[in-house]
Amino acid sequence: MVILFGNPSLTQDYVVAAIYSATNNLAIWKASSGAEKKWIYLDDVGKDLAVDRHYTDVIEYKGLIYAASATMGIISIDPFNTAGNNGIVIKEIIRSPFIFRTPTYLAESSKGNLFIIRRIKELGDYYWHNTLQFEV
Questions:
Q1: pLDDT: is 124 or 2 the higher one?
Q2: What is the rounded CA–CA span in Å between residue 61 and residue 68?
Q3: Per-residue CA distances from 44 to 40, 100, 124 (Å)
Q4: pLDDT 10s digits, 7-56
Q5: Is 44 helix (H, G, I), strand (E, B) or coil?
Q6: pLDDT at 112
Q7: pLDDT score recorded for residue 54
Q8: What positions does the domain KIB1-4 beta-propeller occupy (predicted)?
Q9: Number of other CB atoms surrounding residue 36 within 10 Å
Q10: For residues 67-98, b (16+ Cβ closer than 10 Å) or e, as one string?
């Protein structure tokens, strides 16, 4: 999953956020003018966060990037605040309330509210399958 924060056709200050790999890690690419252009891997800079770093969704919302973990932890990332580690500021918004993993999604409503949506799945003999419901 990849999101683009800003329009590279209109500005040199844009950010790309990507969930990558089989373990769903998160990385940020800052293309700001004057900044070193490289991937910032959150599994490196976010080690002190209690949020499970198995990310399931990422969204741009009101000037920040929000990421949801598989255990319903939420972090916000300010990619333009250079005071933080590697030129970004990461804050834990919701500490992971669950120890088991379930897909968690983020959505912006038509009224501008941010919603956290959790997918409840049935546990089989060895793995999760069959969606039972969604909780908002």
A1: 2
A2: 13
A3: 8, 23, 34
A4: 889 988 889 999 998 888 899 988 865 666 778 888 765 555 555 668 89
A5: helix
A6: 95
A7: 82
A8: 2-136
A9: 9
A10: bbbbbbbbbbbbbbeeeeebbbbbeeebebee
Q: How far apart are alpha carbons 54 and 42 in whole angstroms?
A: 11
Q: Which residue has the tokens 């690419």?
A: 29
Give me the residue label for tokens 């990507």.
18
Q: Classify burial at 127, counting beta carbons within 10 Å of its beta carbon; exposed 0-12, middle 13-18, buried 19 or more.
A: exposed
What is the model's pLDDT at position 66?
94
CA distance 82 to 15: 13
Cβ(25)–Cβ(53) under 8 Å? yes
